[in-house]
Design a protein that fits this description.
This protein is mainly alpha-helical and 297 residues long. It is built from 13 helices and 2 strands. It has a domain of 170 residues: MetI-like fold (Orthogonal Bundle), CATH 1.10.3720.10.
Length: 297
Amino acid sequence: MKKGTKLSVAARREENWGWIMVAPTIIGLLVLNLWPFVQTLYTSFCEHLGFGHYKFIGVQNYVDMFQKPEFWKATWNTIYFCILTVPVGLFLSLLVAMLLNAKIKGKGIFRTIFFLPMVCAPAAVTMVWRWIFNAEYGILNQMFGLHVNWVTDSKVVMIACAVVAIWSNIGYDAVLLLAGLQNISKSYYEAANIDGASKVTQFFQITLPMVSPTLFVVMIMRLMASIKVYDLIYMMVEETNPAVTSVQSLMYLFYRESFVAGSRGSGSAIVIWTVLLIGMITVIQFIGQKKWVNYDV
């Protein structure tokens, strides 16, 4: 009886220490994530009166938001940005990961080089790319003899922003995919070589199915980041740029509504819509992953 009591006390003490250890993370999630979301949700149903005062107006902010062509344009721009960046970014990241996983000299140096864009300040990266895309003396137009206004032409400005986004994230995604590739047992490839399978067959029958869980995680992360894109567009395209409406994302529209126009309620409604959009796309991805993600070892 006493022995059982001692074990119970020890187990309770261990449980208490467990709660103490995870308490900072839980408090951080509540204070920095959950509570701001609740505030944003409430603010989306209010009119901002200034100086921290709000007036509850129901769903009027959402009604006004859905009636604005600018909002639907920003929604399409966000989706279009995802279409441009996610598939191409995943393909290039997987290609780079496979090259870094191959038997080549100086793999560590190449891994560092590809990862460097992630440690560079986004402002510095954007400024360099703006020089590259400069219509008059940019290196891109100079090298290929082009006369394209990459940042001010509404037809190509989204492509220019997508190129910068893909370039900036290839290294990080490639490192994650490289970890997935290195977890694949070499015995699968040895058996495939004995059976006479080609490299292409090995890729589609072994590499792609085995790395699919990591690829799925990277895809979800990249989709979320693309939907929430703001800083890249803000630094690439100035507010006075005539092409700003062609590249304006939902988060960029949120910034303009909340901090330029001073309509915090409308801005909060845009944030809630963005969260719902992320949720819908994530649910679709989790439903679709059952058909192509392989979790069998």
